[in-house]
């Protein structure tokens, strides 16, 4: 599987005119697993929202050549106090297929049971969400993602505060999805885990530092460059006009310095 699933074309994303991800160009191939890494505030969640279509580009474009898309936001953005059961949450995975008020048939119920079994939550159907541990909640969210039967799956920090056994179980699921030809982008911070289990990596520091095979992206010089870029941005940096051009607000120390010019050394594609 070598065709393009996602293409970023000079993509700039942000909030109220303040760019948070700048001029990103590159592509993600179909059927690949890509870790999205970078320091806090480097734009990882912003990029996920841009791909999911929740945030419109300030400049450039993001082209997704896929059927269904599933997006799992950070757990902190999910309200667990909502009075719902595991089965209610997981059934939302049928939303794209059946609509909000659509009937769930016998086959669908069997699929739902199979997904709960696959994430280790068989028998949890009637448990209230607020009674689940963090790991059980994440398993339920993965079951919902499975039911969505998406071609492109975006996972934002799915392993936060999750024990190593659950991480391993969920990673096996993700690897099955890749085996089925789905494309997965996953935000995470654990570089050891990225090295072990993620073939591709996208390293962000508000702008693209590197995108390509993990062993090359995680070279010390790229990590150093990411740290330097991140430290050079301040929260009030750069306004974008409608065309994606920047004003003369504070910028990285010297955008034309050799380090900045050699961006995307690994190549802006996988
Ligand atoms: N809704 C928002 N309104 C305004 N600014 C925002 C909003 N969400 C994020 N930002 C800003 O955009 C920048 C990038 O944030 P983002 O959440 O994408 O970073 P991140 O790499 O996912 O960080 P973390 O690792 O801490 O989750 C930050 O400076 C952040 O303050």
Automatic annotation (TrEMBL):
<feature type="domain" description="ABC transporter">
    <location>
        <begin position="6"/>
        <end position="231"/>
    </location>
</feature>
<keyword id="KW-0067">ATP-binding</keyword>
<dbReference type="InterPro" id="IPR027417">
    <property type="entry name" value="P-loop_NTPase"/>
</dbReference>
<keyword id="KW-0862">Zinc</keyword>
<dbReference type="InterPro" id="IPR050153">
    <property type="entry name" value="Metal_Ion_Import_ABC"/>
</dbReference>
<dbReference type="GO" id="GO:0005524">
    <property type="term" value="F:ATP binding"/>
</dbReference>
<dbReference type="Pfam" id="PF00005">
    <property type="entry name" value="ABC_tran"/>
</dbReference>
<comment type="similarity">
    <text>Belongs to the ABC transporter superfamily.</text>
</comment>
<dbReference type="InterPro" id="IPR047748">
    <property type="entry name" value="AztA-like"/>
</dbReference>
<keyword id="KW-0406">Ion transport</keyword>
<dbReference type="InterPro" id="IPR003593">
    <property type="entry name" value="AAA+_ATPase"/>
</dbReference>
<dbReference type="InterPro" id="IPR003439">
    <property type="entry name" value="ABC_transporter-like_ATP-bd"/>
</dbReference>
<feature type="region of interest" description="Disordered">
    <location>
        <begin position="246"/>
        <end position="270"/>
    </location>
</feature>
<keyword id="KW-0547">Nucleotide-binding</keyword>
<keyword id="KW-0864">Zinc transport</keyword>
<keyword id="KW-0813">Transport</keyword>
<dbReference type="InterPro" id="IPR017871">
    <property type="entry name" value="ABC_transporter-like_CS"/>
</dbReference>
<protein>
    <submittedName>
        <fullName>Zinc ABC transporter ATP-binding protein AztA</fullName>
    </submittedName>
</protein>
